[in-house]
Write a structure and sequence with these properties.
By secondary structure, the protein is of the alpha/beta class. The protein is built from four helices and 14 strands.
C-alpha cells in the first residue's frame, strides 16, 4: 500500500520516498528514529513482489537532501538495487531532488523532468494540471481525518483523486516511513482512499 499499480504498463508508482530524511535530521542534531530507510525499502520490496512490477516510477523527492548521501543510506539503496537488478527505475524530479541532486549512477535509474507521459497519464511530482492527461503526482503528502472508536479521530495517509473532468489530478500519499502529512481540501467530485496498514479503503462521501 502507498503505491499505485498500473497493471497495463507493469508499472508501480511511488511518491515522496524521501530516502535519507532521518539521517539528514540527525546530522542537524535532531533525535529521530533509526531504520527508516530499511523500513521503506522493505515495503517497496513487498509491493514489487505482490504486483510483479517490471518498472518503478518515483514521483519526485527520492532523496530528501544533500545530507542524504550518507554512506549507510547509499549502501542500503545499493543493496536493494542489487536484489532487484532487472527492475527499470525512473525518477521524475521533484523539489527535494533539485537540492539533493540526482541519485548515484550506480543505482541505474533514469532521471527525467516532469511530466513523464504514460498512456492517458502525466506522471509528475507537482500536482498541477497537464493538458490532455490525467496527472498522477505527489508533493502534498495528503492525509484525511477519520473517526475512530470512542469518538477519537485518526489522521491517515490517503490517495486523493480529483474528478477527471473538473480536476484531472490525483495525488499519492508519501511513501517514505518518515514523512509528514497534510490534510486534503476536498472539492466536489473528489474521491479519497485512506491507507490503514496494509489496507486501502474508500472514504464514503468523498465523491
Amino acid at each position: 500500500t502507498g503505491g499505485a499499480w498500473l497493471p497495463e504498463y507493469h508499472t508501480l508508482l511511488v511518491a515522496d520516498a524521501h530516502f535519507g530524511k532521518a539521517v539528514s535530521f540527525r546530522k542537524l542534531g535532531v533525535p529521530v528514529p533509526q531504520g527508516t530507510t530499511t523500513e521503506t525499502l522493505a515495503q517497496l520490496s513487498r509491493l514489487v513482489a505482490d504486483t510483479g512490477a517490471r518498472r518503478i516510477v518515483f514521483l519526485g523527492d527520492f532523496l530528501h537532501s544533500a545530507r542524504s548521501h550518507a554512506s549507510a543510506t547509499l549502501a542500503a539503496l545499493a543493496h536493494w538495487r542489487a536484489d532487484h537488478a532487472t527492475l527499470q527505475l525512473t525518477l521524475v524530479r521533484g523539489n527535494h531532488d533539485d537540492h539533493a541532486g540526482d541519485p548515484p549512477a550506480a543505482l541505474g535509474m533514469d532521471v527525467v523532468d516532469e511530466p513523464l507521459l504514460l498512456g492517458p497519464f502525466a506522471l509528475c511530482h507537482h500536482p498541477e494540471p497537464v493538458p490532455g492527461a490525467y496527472v498522477l503526482a505527489g508533493h502534498w503528502h495528503p492525509c484525511i481525518s477519520v473517526r475512530g472508536r470512542a469518538h477519537d479521530r485518526l489522521r491517515l495517509p490517503c490517495f486523493w483523486l480529483g474528478d477527471e473532468a473538473r480536476h484531472p489530478v490525483g495525488v499519492l500519499p508519501a511513501f517514505g516511513s518518515f514523512t509528514g502529512m497534510h490534510p486534503v481540501a476536498l472539492r466536489d467530485g473528489d474521491r479519497v482512499y485512506a491507507v490503514a496498514g496494509d489496507e486501502v479503503r474508500y472514504v464514503p462521501g468523498t465523491a
